[in-house]
Amino acid sequence: MTITHNGHSATTLRGPRATQFLTEVESGDPQLVMARWTGNYKRGNERTARNHPRNRR
């Protein structure tokens, strides 16, 4: 399984890691899970943005 962003490969997952990733994506916030798994979780603003009134559902 290859995770891409804007047409570029972000990371490749195989075997049990791919299965674990898919399980987490289905049970949680997909954007947050992908940011954590691809290593693009440095800024720490994902949780703040998710809780902003404009982004609540």
Describe it:
- It is a single chain.
- This protein is α+β, with helices and mostly antiparallel strands.
- The chain has one domain.
- It is 49% helix and 16% strand.
- The chain contains three helices and two strands; from the N terminus they run ββααα.
- A two-stranded antiparallel sheet has the order 1-2.
- Strand 1 and strand 2 form a beta hairpin.
Please tell me how large the radius of gyration is. 13 Å
**Percentage beta strand:** 15-25%
Mean of residue pLDDT values: 78
* Topology order in helix (H) and strand (E) letters: EEHHH
What keyword list fits this structure?
single chain; 57 residues; alpha+beta; two-stranded antiparallel ribbon; 3 helices
Question: Quick gist of this model?
Answer:
The chain is α+β, with helices and mostly antiparallel strands and 57 residues long.
Set out the fold topology.
Elements: E1 2-5, E2 8-12, H1 15-27, H2 30-38, H3 46-51
Antiparallel strand pairs: 1-2
Helix pairs in contact: 1-2
